Amino acid sequence: MGAKTDLDRFLGILEAHPKGVSHSEIHDWWPGGGKNRPRMEWVRGTAKNLATQGLIRITSVPSKRGRPATIYQLQSYASVIETQTPGEEIRFENKLFENVEAYLETGRTYRQLKNKFGDGVDSYLHPGAWSNSKTLFKDINKQGEHSFILLPTPQNWVSPIEARDWQYHIPVVNGKMQPYQIIQMPEDVFRMDGRYGQCFGVVPLFDVHYGSNGHRENKFQKYLKWIAKTPGLYIILGGDLMDNALDDGRGMSYDQYIPPQSQLDDMTEMLAPLAHRVLTMFPGNHEWRTYKKTGIDISKILADRLNIPYHTGPVLLNILAGEHKYRIYAQHGFTRPGTKGGQLNSAMKPMKWIDADFFLSGHTHEALVSEDTVLRENAQDGNLAFVPRWTVITQSFMGWLDTYGYRAGYGPVAGGGILLEMFENGERVPSTR
Ligand SMILES: [Fe+2]
Q: Within a 10 A sphere around the Cβ of 345, how many other Cβ atoms?
């Protein structure tokens, strides 16, 4: 045993006087005399702390002089251990609490509890004595005795969603949401070291096909971990996250090892820790199957659960960061031409009607990048500027064997990944990894 602390002395006095001691009695009985006693604020604070843990009781009684006096009374002879690291406030480890908690995993009668722990147990036999994760139930057994049991409180598995460090706006005109999102990034968004200096990244997560036999779980989990530990990475959720095979002959429901409801629940759970990094989300053809059959949009349910900005189709993101704006036109993609050239052609179509730096899509499970250069007048220096425009078809999280793609005669799908990097100096490039 180490040297006696003030807490030991305080508890010693309480232990020696089971009926309780008043404030002034602590003063009188302090070992070594009143001059050694700690400040009364310490006694009050410590007593309050012990009382909230149910270890002591604080009551007010009228004193002889008629003014109320505070009485401290030890509730149990629990071992109270003081742990203190420099700079931290004193914490108390309550052994009785832990013992009662373990004992109540099985239903116990009041008599059993009293026999085992003494009167001190009373302070634990009301619901307020337990944290939000446990609920105390007071039941009546066959003998008509009260019995107590401590059971886990059902938790909302979605919460808590972390707060975003960016802001967004989706315009609503004449009651209709526009497929457009202005995003204001925080000042310090350029947190990653990239080829051209400091940058932030946008990771497209498309075509996960969770629940399908072909889903590449290792790859997807690696991505989630990589994003979680890398500040400055943001996400676009681009559809076909869930394989969602329906029992109508359209989806191959026998190729699916997890049913759609569980796909939705699991996806919610997997994405919740990263929800605050998702810039936008839209469905793919696989999620849309449910909408076509039932009018219920399961992607919107996922987005609502995770508080993610949501569009039912393609969207233009205008991302404002530092001195520049970075524009991404993102869509799931709905055709799958047989050649890579054909796939790029259809991914480029929106260039006819919208201006952006990246034309991002998925759906084909290929990983393709194509660069075009656009000439633009630069009003700032009077020159012609050569501006790159990138068409990006992003990879999937699907394998090949055992899948529809294999049986339909398609080749093995792309295994790598694509990251859109936005640099502080205004450069913007897709990088493959
Ligand atoms: Fe798709």
A: 14
CB contact at 8 A, 182 and 167:
no
* Digit-coded pLDDT (tens) for 352-387: 999 999 999 999 998 999 999 999 999 989 999 999
Task: Please tell me the distance between residue 206's alpha carbon and the centre of ligand 1 in angstroms.
Answer: 8
Distance from residue 364's CA to the centre of ligand 1 (Å): 7
CA of 138 to the centre of ligand 1 (A): 53
Q: Where are the domains of the chain?
A: 1-83, 104-154, 167-432
CATH number 3.60.21 given to 167-432: yes
How close is the Cα of 197 to the center of ligand 1, in Å?
34
**Cα-to-centroid distance, 35 and ligand 1 (Å):** 79
Of the pLDDT bands very low, low, confident and very high (cuts 50, 70, 90), residue 185 is very high
The answer for residues whose C-beta is within 8 angstroms of residue 322's C-beta and 6 or more apart is 185, 187, 189, 190, 424
Architecture (CATH level 2) of domain 1-83: Orthogonal Bundle (1.10)
pLDDT digits (tens, 9 = 90+) for 34-59: 677 788 788 888 888 888 777 788 87
Cα 214 to ligand 1 centre (Å): 14
Given this chain, do its domains 1-83 and 167-432 carry the same CATH topology?
no
pLDDT tens-place string over residues 112-145: 999 988 887 888 888 777 877 788 999 998 889 9
**How far does residue 318's CA lie from ligand 1's centre (Å)?**
24
> Between the CA of residue 42 and those of 6, 23, 56, 246, what are the distances in Å?
9, 12, 15, 66
